[in-house]
Amino acid sequence: MTDVTQDLTVDALIDAYRRFRLADSAMTLRIRSETGMSDNEIAIVRYLLHERDEDHDVKPSEIARHLDISSASTTALLDRLERSGMVERISHPTDRRSILIAATPAAEAAVASTLEAFETRLHDLSAALDPDARATVVSYLAALTEAADAIGTPRS
User: What residues in the chain have per-residue pLDDT under 70?
Assistant: First the structure.
């Protein structure tokens, strides 16, 4: 890890952010390569695993809302994931018209194992910050998110 105290200029902060984005993109490419899944497919599996951990069953419409994609796109992604053994469609226990989507153990192994080390490091790094530093980082990241979301969005 680089010495953070070496240069605390605005340019150094922007450079650190850019280095993180490059590293994050490279990690995403490695995960895609290792799993053979697209970004949206990985996002679906991660969402399903998270919701399973929260004891929440997931319908296809919830996946579409989560990813902000059409139901047709969701169906196509789920078809691919089902063919590759990453998800399964399960009959809804109380609503015969509905189906539920669940990640398979193969999906959990493929995605969780590649992300687990990063998630652990992220948690450890975050926990090591004092509350004031965490508040500053949260505020900064929220402002970055707002700035990114505003790009290409028509102004009122």
Answer: 1-7, 153-156
